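Every protein is a chain of amino acids, and every chain bends into a shape of its own. Below is the pair of lines this work produces for a single protein:
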Amino acid sequence: MSATPPDRLAAGLEVTSFLRLAEARGGFGTVLHKGDESRGSILLVVLERGRQTGFLERTLQASGQYEWSDSGPDGADPARAAQYVAQRRRYDPDCWVIELDIPSSERFIAETIGAT
């Protein structure tokens, strides 16, 4: 088993922190698909009051650093969202898919991708 890069938390640990963050903000989170504990990618499905508001994904940049970016289809069409998640899982079976239903989801997205 290869080591996790030093500038990145293990995926399982980062997932746990997102679930706790959602709870601390008055929402909740759930694991839709469990990925690789140490090296798995993470796809966040962000909702507010049951309405999907965005997707966030941690990706490796050309600089060698990991950054969160906005991804996935725009809009709240559940069929398109499900299709996107299924496509990501086919492409990367080690990908974690986490659903976070949190108040002020737009603010959470902006804070996570560093757009504040």
User: Anything to note?
Assistant: Helices lie at 11-24, 78-91, 105-113.
